[in-house]
Amino acid sequence: MDYNSEAIRRHRESRGKISIASKMTVETADDLSVAYTPGVAAVSMA
């Protein structure tokens, strides 16, 4: 198998190969602050 050609083909088909999705709805700056910095610090220190 030609892994390079296959990787390029699949990348073109899917417009990328890997995605990251939020488990919570992030619609506002406040939502993002809770999900990410500084909200993540509270979870890390708990």
Compact description:
With 46 residues, this protein is mostly helical. The protein has helices at 3-14, 29-35, 39-45.
List the helices and strands and how they pair.
Layout: H1 3-14, H2 29-35, H3 39-45
InterPro entries: Aminoacid_DH-like_N_sf, Malic_N_dom_sf
GO molecular function, one term: malic enzyme activity
Protein name: Malic enzyme N-terminal domain-containing protein
The largest β sheet comes out as: none
Shape: elongated
Span of the ends, CA to CA: 48 Å
Order of SSEs, N→C?
A: HHH
Mean pLDDT over the residues: 86
Radius of gyration: 18 Å
Structure commentary:
With 46 residues, this protein is an all-alpha fold. It has one domain. The protein contains 3 helices and no strands. The longest helix has 12 residues. The radius of gyration is 18 Å and the shape is elongated. The model has no long low-confidence stretch (mean pLDDT 86). It comes from marine metagenome. InterPro entries: Aminoacid_DH-like_N_sf (IPR046346), Malic_N_dom_sf (IPR037062). This is Malic enzyme N-terminal domain-containing protein. One of its GO terms (molecular function) is oxidoreductase activity, acting on the CH-OH group of donors, NAD or NADP as acceptor.
Give the tags.
single chain, 46 residues, mainly alpha, 57% helix, elongated
